[in-house]
Amino acid sequence: MALGFAGLVQRGELEKSPAVHCVQPEGNNTIAGPLRDGAEKARAVAECTSKVGGLQVPRVMDGNEVISACRACGGTGYLVTDEDTWQLQSRLAREEGIFTEPAGAVALAGAPQGYRQGQINGDDVVVCLVTGFGFKDNASVDRMITDVDCPVINVEQIPEQ
Length: 161
Description:
By secondary structure, the chain is mostly helical. The chain has one domain (20-65, 81-147): Rossmann fold (3-Layer(aba) Sandwich), CATH 3.40.50. The protein is 38% helix and 5% strand. The protein has a two-stranded parallel sheet. Helix 4 packs across helix 5.
């Protein structure tokens, strides 16, 4: 995203790039922490402890490029807990009807953190990319409905239209 906005600025199609931030689970701090701490390079982690499927890559792939691109547009890094991610995944499904996998809710989990830390103001326009279909992670679906009364009906109970 940061590189895309930089290209728009370079071509004169956008005056200034918005800040693009990197959000990762605490248990897989390869990019967000180094970005936030002012490091120039991403770092591998000895062991990924995050249970957020799809974001359990303890080695650095394009992390150096992400740090450079985010920093160039004023972005920083946020580390979020798995629990915060699962909570926001569940809220998205229940309150907004958006059924994403946990990895798709990570960016959104970083927004409240930025607000609490005073880096996002109440009147700022914030866009969080929510990607990935909810059924990609069956364990998170089970977690969302553990305490929910979810009646099951047979196909014969569905009226014909």
